[in-house]
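Worked example 4.2. Below are the chains of a multi-component assembly; read each line carefully before continuing.
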Amino acid sequence: MKKIKHIVFGGAGFVGINLVKKLQEKNETILVVDNLSNSRKDVLLNISNKSLVFFKHLDINNTYDMEGLSKTYSFDKQSIVWHLAANSDIASGIDDITIDLNDTFLTTIAILKFCKLNSIKQLAFASSSAVYGNLDGIAVSEEHGPLYPISNYGAMKLASEAAISAAFEQYLDKSIIFRFPNVVGFPSTHGVIHDFINKLKQNPNILNVLGDGNQQKCYVHSEDLADMLINIFDETFGLDILNIGPEDDGIKVSRIAELVVDKMSQDAEIRYEDKKQGWVGDVPVFKYDSTKMISLGFKPLKSSEEAVIQTISQILTESF
Amino acid sequence: MKKIKHIVFGGAGFVGINLVKKLQEKNETILVVDNLSNSRKDVLLNISNKSLVFFKHLDINNTYDMEGLSKTYSFDKQSIVWHLAANSDIASGIDDITIDLNDTFLTTIAILKFCKLNSIKQLAFASSSAVYGNLDGIAVSEEHGPLYPISNYGAMKLASEAAISAAFEQYLDKSIIFRFPNVVGFPSTHGVIHDFINKLKQNPNILNVLGDGNQQKCYVHSEDLADMLINIFDETFGLDILNIGPEDDGIKVSRIAELVVDKMSQDAEIRYEDKKQGWVGDVPVFKYDSTKMISLGFKPLKSSEEAVIQTISQILTESF
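Applying the procedure described above to all two chains together yields the following structure tokens:
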């Protein structure tokens, strides 16, 4: 069997599928490892070139299964681990840290052990803007500190970054940490656009928005993101942290509501709440300083609004 | 039974004992919880006022025992949790992250669950300068970022800070995170001074130093530290992170070697290695920006050198 070049943990999830779709254009072997929670294996199988993409269903936190992976497949120092395995629903982990402890953090520990065991020296990690917490709309750069995450998800992403940093000192040659903004596209499973679409499907006359609609955040489209991950990883080295975001200051929730209503149910009334935060752990206004990414020569093709518009169509048609 | 005012996790360890010694001067009830690994229960019992200090031997990561604690003792919103439970030997955790994952990080998760379960709203946390990694002697402030810890210990301290930050958003009213420098004093159990004393006891003629002796770090004496923890906690609020350090730029390993040799075996030959780092994960030169602490009106009574000199005597005499 050919040696595996790319191992994508969480590769049957929303961002993982977009990454696999782009990676196979390189004509290199890919192993997707996923526990199929909150995943879309149907879409993954649909886009996969069967001669390049292998799939293994397992729980990354199961030591026995992970050691089995090392016996079944062949890896080397040139292999790259893409670590996208995490709980992807921030709100679901607010009440109980166990979800993000297991799915967002302990997966990182397990993946680092996998790298060490197999002498894999290259790691790309999907971190998050959630590590920054609530900064009241200050455009935040990678140098910002100290970090006060307000969700267990953000906390466990920061914890993962820390573990990767120590692993780099010991046995990794390259560890690129990407701090994602909100990512939209197909086949996403939740988030504000899904929320609005689902509500309008239930009641085409009223759209109840969580919060006052003034929440404003940056969005990157998953196809843009996948391109950037691959290209930036190729162009960077050592241990590095990069904000990935659009050049704009984001789009308001009220504008997203209008765009969804315009597409689905033009007469619907949009109702807002009298509070800034949509839910505990939500960051109402988030701006991103992507200077470092841009200075390396990279930027998304689509703005936040363009990414949202494309995503509304993709979710409604269930297609790329 | 009287309500417990202070719960000191890791209270039978080196810093914990110094904290308990000072806390009981307030004449408030104290519960010490410790697994007695790397601890000095003999010293704790020796210094404890029996009417104020209660002791419970348990493993913080044992959910059943921790829930038992909540049934045995009475706590309230005015109680303060002092979280000093951790692996305290950075070097021991370099090869295997399991030690610091369990003892330095998962203890934090367990203690946060304990706070939530018992509606305890106030937490003081012993973090570490190890979160900063190797900054080549730049005087580092709390605002420094991004953080690249180089030891699993530093990584799991940073991970703990992140979890505490998210808990503050949800159910804590006050969370003060103290980033400790190197702490010396009695009854410490390991570190450079112990290393030198043990070597000279084995061979009074030669002292083999790890590294080239130019490693330079800040030291705070444990009695100074305990005073500052209590006083600063009283004077701060909300969620905050503070470097705790001396005003000086530290003391070189070669100077520590001379001080120990001078006290124990004046004719001993001091031998150095031809490398900057004493061990993997060691930070050769570390300077601390304690401006924030000083601006609040606090500083240690002893300099780095004075702290080291007092500690050499204390270790040799096994006494405060």
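Take a moment to check your reading of the output against the notes. Chain B has a mean pLDDT of 95. Residues 25 and 138 of chain B are 38 Å apart (CA to CA).
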